[in-house]
Design a protein that fits this description.
Elements (H helix, E strand, L loop, with lengths): L7 H11 L2 H6 L9 H19 L3 H7 L2 E3 L4 E3 L4 H10 L18 H14 L1 H20 L2 H13 L2 E6 L15 E4 L5 E11 L8 E8 L12 E6 L1 E3 L5 E4 L2 E6 L10 E14 L5 H37 L23 H33 L3 H36 L11 H10 L7 H14 L4 H17 L6 H27 L2 H32 L6 H17 L2 H10 L3 H4 L7
Parallel strand pairs: 3-6
Antiparallel strand pairs: 1-2, 4-5, 5-11, 6-7, 7-11, 8-9, 10-11
The structure holds flavin-adenine dinucleotide.
Flavin-adenine dinucleotide binds next to β3, β5 and α13.
Length: about 600
């Protein structure tokens, strides 16, 4: 059976020593009162809740899966999920970073982010029930009418109701311009929605009293393609005059999917049979409104993989300490035993350190992005808000794709540490691999994230957002470049920064002649960019660790060792990736379609 210990020490390191969150927040009137002790208390309590209440449901939830009753079209989540959700709501966790105007606690995103990592380590499938509610909350908060906000937000904030995002249809997932679900005006401000959505996470379940679906559909006179999509709020139960769940609406679950992982989360086919819906935002501008939810979900998916990376690492280390096989190549280490623990073998250490570096790098990176969101939302200076928003836009596809690719690698390496036992269900490691795989697919595949980064965020912007982030890297390089102790980190960081700039320009030039060059380069390009971001944060963390090495706290020794491993063993893959990104489209496109 796997175990989980919330990584509070590393979280505190990131929040206080790396990012100095309390000082950052002091500049934001909304959060100025939040001190380090309160931050620590919240994450400690979050750790207790996730490890004590949510984690024990992970393995049994995976084995049991969800249940669908065709007669009532009801979905029941695995045993214990509903009770855990009740405790989650009762403790006020859903409202952590929500607006106090709607009953939220108004805490910063950077805290919510830390809590969310722990939830995902504890149980990704369970976390997806409330996970999408936050995106629905953000979307309605940004684009809902005052009446919609008053009706739905307090219940989403309290967690009494959950939310979904209904985009995908059987014939379209990536290309939403093809979607067919129809919305006809009823003359009373409402619309009648007809169509069928597939793969809707938490589309139906027994955890909450109502489910608020945010549905993309087409108005009768809508232009074709993405410019003709509108967004609607479609509640499972239409709220009555008092705002309580009233009449059952015409949206229901036709089936649930049997799938590779996240068995505890219901992936639903949702049928809209003349369901009542209400427009969110402007007609035909639905994708624009939905992007608020999609961006939140993209960051959330990156956090799912960070959570899995951490928990898989923890268990693999425990196993590597216990399991004895063979002797160390440099001589016996455990002479009282017939064999040494596998932790003595260099390649077992490589696997463990890979997972650990991806966890620590991911934690530093996503905490930083969450803090940038706080700046974007709450800083009094408009120029600071704008700069933070640009950075979040640039970094969002990297969080989504780089962390989920890393999560797949890390969970697979952690499983490998167990040898054959990793492949056996009772150890729980194969579940982490299965659960991690979906994160590379949904919420825009990692290919689509790469195209978003290279095509929209870098090239269409003439590299402005990338330069803005590059300035931070440059400032750090200049500040520490003359310190010999930092050379092992600064030299490769500066080198990669220059190479990424050159690579961006080269692809940009090629793209003038042939747009396929962008598609051919995008995936390795995003991975290079991800490594630049990680190298920057590992160099910053190494700086702190070097300064505190003499403190006698082993934590800093370990931090330095992980940073050194990262630079020596993981960053060098950028050499291959850059060659791939420069290889051009010809080797992909020259073969005739008929020859495939
Ligand atoms: C378990 C699960 C949960 C999900 N939850 C939700 C949910 O809650 N709500 C929701 O709306 N959807 C959900 N989805 C759907 C998910 O977001 C889509 O499956 C995903 O976006 C990909 O769409 P698709 O499956 O139609 O693949 P397609 O769009 O058909 O793509 C097939 C392949 O072609 C590639 N491709 C497509 N277009 C391009 C392009 N222009 N350039 C390069 N490559 C391209 C893709 O990257 C992919 O590799 C879920 C899916 C699963 C499996």
């Amino acid at each position: 059976m796997p175990t989980y210990t919330p990584p509070l020490r590393d979280m505190q390191f990131v929040l206080h020593e790396l990012l100095d969150v309390p000082t950052e927040l002091a500049a934001m009137p909304r959060h100025a009162e939040l001190d380090a002790d309160t931050i620590n208390q919240v994450i400690e309590e979050g750790g207790k809740f996730t490890a004590g209440v949510i984690f024990p449901l992970n393995l049994p939830g995976d084995h049991e899966g969800c249940h669908y009753d065709a007669a009532s079209r009801a979905v029941t989540a695995p045993q214990g999920f509903k009770e855990a959700y009740r405790q989650y709501v009762e403790a006020g966790w859903p409202s952590l970073s929500c607006d106090p105007a709607y009953g939220g606690q108004g805490l910063p995103m950077v805290l919510n982010n830390a809590f969310y990592e722990m939830l995902n380590s504890a149980n990704q499938a369970w976390t997806m029930y409330p996970g999408l509610s936050h995106g629905a909350y953000e979307c309605l908060h940004a684009h809902g009418t005052p009446e919609q906000r008053a009706l739905y937000l307090p219940k989403l904030v309290s967690g009494e109701w959950t939310g979904t995002m209904c985009l995908t249809e059987s014939h379209c997932g990536t290309d939403l311009g093809l979607l067919k679900t129809k919305a006809e005006p009823q003359g009373d401000g409402s619309f009648r929605l007809t169509g069928s959505k597939i793969f809707i996470s938490a589309g139906e379940h027994d955890l909450a009293a109502n489910i608020i679906h945010l549905v993309l559909a087409r108005l009768p006179d809508a232009p074709p393609g993405t410019k003709g999509i509108s967004l609607f709020v479609v509640p499972k139960f239409v709220p009555d005059a008092n705002g309580n769940p009233g009449e059952r609406n015409g949206i229901s679950c036709g089936a649930i999917e049997h799938k590779m992982g996240i068995h505890g989360n219901a992936t639903c086919q949702m049928n809209l049979d003349g369901a009542s819906g209400w427009l969110i935002g402007e007609p035909n501008r639905g994708l624009n409104a939905m992007f608020v939810m999609m961006n939140a979900a993209r960051l959330g998916v990156g956090m799912q993989s960070l959570g899995l990376t951490e928990v898989a690492y923890q268990n693999a280390v425990a196993y590597a300490r216990e399991r004895s096989q063979g002797r160390s190549l440099t001589g016996t280490k455990a002479s009282d035993k017939p064999a040494d623990p596998i932790l003595v073998h260099p390649d077992v250490r490589r696997m463990l350190l890979t997972a650990r570096a991806y966890a620590e790098g991911g934690r530093a990176f996503t905490s930083y992005v969450a803090l940038m969101i706080d700046r974007e939302l709450s800083h009094p200076d408009e120029a600071v808000r704008k700069a933070a928003g640009d950075e979040v836009a640039l970094l969002t596809p990297i969080v989504k794709a780089f962390l989920t690719d890393n999560g797949w690698i890390a969970t697979s390496e952690a499983m490998q540490v167990y040898g054959g036992h990793g492949y056996i269900a009772e150890w729980g490691m194969e579940q982490y691999v299965r659960d991690a795989r979906i994160n590379m697919i949904y919420e825009g595949t990692n290919t689509i994230q790469s195209l978003d980064l290279l095509g929209r965020k870098v090239l269409m912007d003439n590299g402005a957002k990338l330069r803005q982030f590059g300035e931070k890297v440059k400032a750090f390089v200049e500040a520490h470049g003359t310190d010999d102790k930092m050379a092992e980190f600064i030299t490769p960081l500066a080198d990669l920064g220059e190479k990424l700039t050159k690579l961006s320009m080269e692809i940009g030039m090629k793209a003038f002649m042939n747009r396929d060059e962008v598609g051919a380069a995008a995936v390795p390009y995003l991975r290079v960019a991800g490594h630049l971001v990680f190298a920057y944060f590992f160099a910053r963390m190494a700086r702190i660790a070097l300064d505190k090495q003499g403190s006698g706290d082993d934590f800093y020794q370990a931090k330095l060792a992980v940073a050194r491993f990262y630079f020596a063993r993981l960053l060098p893959e950028t050499a291959t990736l850059i060659r791939q990104a420069r290889a051009g489209s010809a080797s992909l496109m020259q073969m005739d379609e008929a020859l495939f």
